[in-house]
């Protein structure tokens, strides 16, 4: 089927119920294809819709168009069905991961959801695309008091002036881009069944392994969150003060120890200087004693040399005396032998004389 500009429309000026052009064409068949005489409403936010009518061409092409051509320039193209179905899916989630740029990742357990959540300004009202009540694995639920308004960014971002007004109300608002992955591919031949199938698929994908990623365009910090933050900051301050005191005490201890070490070094230096002086004196004394010992050693060496010379002479004299003793002993032995022989002869003569006499 050829692409048309308005393949779907709301059935009221404020409610979320909608209908596709194909559904209405089928509904007209029992009436011979004649118009059902109903007024439809442009695909805009609640309170900003314009009346439309259903059209079926001879070639069966069907769409909605503005009843008043002037409204077309006022309303513009309006909301795409991809945008509508994506925010419907968000409102029906039971849980998902939420990645917030600059604020980390959060696992949400969703308690309730809605679309076209009304926000009141002093001079009017505004409808957010979706609204969630949730708990979280982080302190996000406490920070935002368990709620978040969601704006789906498909073709148009939230204008800066509207962001400022939302920020002025102090409500948590997230702008989430519509990923191409979740675009609805059946806009021109959509049916209620196909739309429900698409919403169910988006929900299952986001709940199982997917995630929503967006930017916080309006933040809130609840009283409980601020009190908790103050408590945490006070605790950090106490720890920091304790650390500072510990550092100061350590510094003082180190300074006192440094002063004691410096005093000890001064004393050690003075003792070393005094000891060095005593060592110099002792060295001089020992050097003098060494000189005297050297002189004594020289004299002792000279005396030893003389003693050795005298000993050699004594040994020579002793050897000469020993030779003389040996000679005398031989002379004495010879003399005694002769004298003995003579005495024997005399004794023999005397015996003989006695015998003969």
Compute the average pLDDT: 87
Distance between the first and last residues' Cα: 203 Å
Give helix and strand order, one letter per element, not per position. Answer: EEHEEEHHEEEHEHEHEH
* Proportion of beta-strand residues: 15-25%
Runs with pLDDT <50, length 5+? none
Secondary structure class reads alpha+beta
What is the count of helical runs? Answer: 7
Shape: rod-shaped
How many DSSP E strands?
11
Any overview of this molecule?
It is a single chain. This protein is an alpha+beta fold and 357 residues long. It has 3 domains: 68 residues, no CATH class; 141 residues, no CATH class; 105 residues. The protein is 54% helix and 21% strand. It contains 7 helices and 11 strands. Helix 3 crosses helix 6. The protein starts with 7 loop residues before the first strand and ends with a helix. 20% of the residues are buried.
Give a short synopsis of this structure:
With 357 residues, the chain is of the alpha+beta class. The chain is built from 7 helices and 11 strands.
Describe the SSE topology.
Elements: E1 8-10, E2 18-20, H1 21-28, E3 40-41, E4 51-56, E5 62-66, H2 69-75, H3 81-91, E6 95-100, E7 104-121, E8 124-136, H4 140-143, E9 147-153, H5 160-169, E10 173-177, H6 192-208, E11 211-218, H7 223-356
Parallel strand pairs: 6-11, 9-10
Antiparallel strand pairs: 1-2, 3-4, 4-5, 6-7, 7-8, 8-9, 10-11
């Amino acid at each position: 089927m050829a692409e048309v500009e308005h393949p779907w429309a709301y059935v009221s000026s404020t409610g979320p119920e909608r209908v596709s052009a194909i559904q209405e064409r089928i509904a007209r068949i029992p009436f011979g294809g004649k118009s059902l005489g109903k007024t439809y409403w442009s695909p805009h936010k609640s309170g900003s819709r314009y009346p439309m009518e259903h059209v079926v061409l001879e070639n069966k092409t069907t769409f909605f168009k503005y009843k008043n051509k002037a409204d077309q320039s006022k309303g513009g193209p309006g909301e795409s069905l991809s945008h509508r179905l994506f925010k419907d899916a968000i409102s029906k989630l039971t849980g998902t991961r939420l990645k917030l740029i600059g604020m980390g990742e959060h696992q949400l357990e969703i308690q309730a959801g809605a679309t076209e959540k009304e926000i009141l300004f002093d001079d009017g009202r505004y409808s957010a695309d979706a609204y969630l009540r949730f708990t979280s694995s982080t302190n996000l639920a406490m920070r935002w008091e368990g709620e978040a308004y969601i704006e789906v960014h498909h073709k148009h971002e939230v204008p800066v002036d509207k962001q400022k007004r939302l920020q002025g109300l102090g409500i948590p608002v997230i702008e989430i881009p519509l990923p191409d992955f979740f675009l609805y591919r059946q806009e021109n031949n959509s049916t209620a069944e196909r739309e429900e199938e698409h919403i169910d698929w988006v929900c299952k994908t986001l709940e199982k392994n997917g995630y929503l990623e967006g930017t916080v365009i309006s933040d809130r910090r609840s009283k409980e969150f601020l009190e908790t933050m103050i408590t945490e900051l006070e605790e950090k301050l106490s720890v920091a003060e304790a650390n500072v005191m510990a550092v100061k005490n350590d510094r003082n201890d180190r300074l006192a120890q440094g002063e004691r070490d410096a005093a000890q070094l001064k004393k050690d230096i003075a003792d070393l200087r005094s000891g060095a002086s005593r060592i110099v004196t002792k060295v001089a004394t020992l050097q003098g004693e060494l000189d005297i010992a050297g002189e004594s050693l020289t004299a002792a060496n000279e005396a030893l040399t003389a003693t050795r010379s005298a000993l050699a002479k004594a040994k020579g004299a002793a050897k000469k005396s020993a030779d003389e003793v040996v000679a005398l002993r031989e002379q004495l032995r010879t003399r005694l032998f002769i004298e003995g022989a003579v005495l024997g002869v005399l004794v023999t003569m005397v015996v003989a004389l006695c015998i003969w006499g």
